[in-house]
Amino acid sequence: VQLQASGGGLVQPGGSLRLSCAASKFTFRYYATAWFRQAPGQEREGVACISGGTDRTNYAPSVEGRFTISREDAKNMVFLQMNNLSPEDTAVYYCAARASPLLTTTPISYDYWGQGTQFTVSS
Fold first, then answer.
1. Distance from C-alpha of 94 to C-alpha of 73, rounded to nearest angstrom
2. What is d(CA 3, CA 77) in angstroms, rounded to the nearest whole number?
3. Quick one: which of 121, 100, 94 has its CA closest to 28?
4. Which residue in 33, 70, 72, 93 has its CB near the most CB atoms, within 10 A?
5. How far apart, in Å, are the Cα atoms of 120 and each of 43, 66, 72?
6. Considering only CA atoms, which of 4, 8, 27, 30 is closest in space to residue 17?
7. What pLDDT is recorded for position 1?
8. Longest CA–CA separation in the chain, Å
9. Residue 18's pLDDT band (boundaries 50, 70, 90)?
């Protein structure tokens, strides 16, 4: 199983960005997928997750209302739409998947991880 995250870069405060996660040898539809982020010197933080099958979602309070996680089953991809970005959102973002459909943002619960994609919010 391999996960590939993409979409990072540089964006201005207040701007938007969409991250993508593609998988090989894994079908997102049936399992929970999440986006995590890690800023320098900080612990990895779960920002959004989507359950397998039922498509329930959960967000960290810091991103609620600004970030949207979604899944496109036909393409077997998961996305993170991020709006109204601030410098505090600067981090390396990772997509992760687990062999369970249940929601969680606990990193240890995830079995597969992408390599991370960096984006910076700065003017």
1. 19
2. 10
3. 100
4. 33
5. 17, 16, 26
6. 8
7. 87
8. 40
9. very high
Query: Which residues make Cβ contacts (< 8 Å) with residue 113, sequence separation at least 6?
Result: 3, 94, 95, 96
- Tell me which amino acid residue 45 is: E
> What is the C-alpha separation between 104 and 34, in angstroms, rounded?
8
The tokens describing 12, both together, are 């201005």
Whole-number Å distance between alpha carbons of 8 and 98 = 23
Q: Scanning the structure block, which residue is given the tokens 């099958």? A: 53
- Report the DSSP beta bridge partners of residue 97: 33, 112
Q: How far apart are CA 83 and CA 118, in angstroms?
A: 16
Looking up tokens 């089953």 gives: 73
Q: 51: helix, coil or strand?
A: coil
Over residues 4-18, mean pLDDT? 94
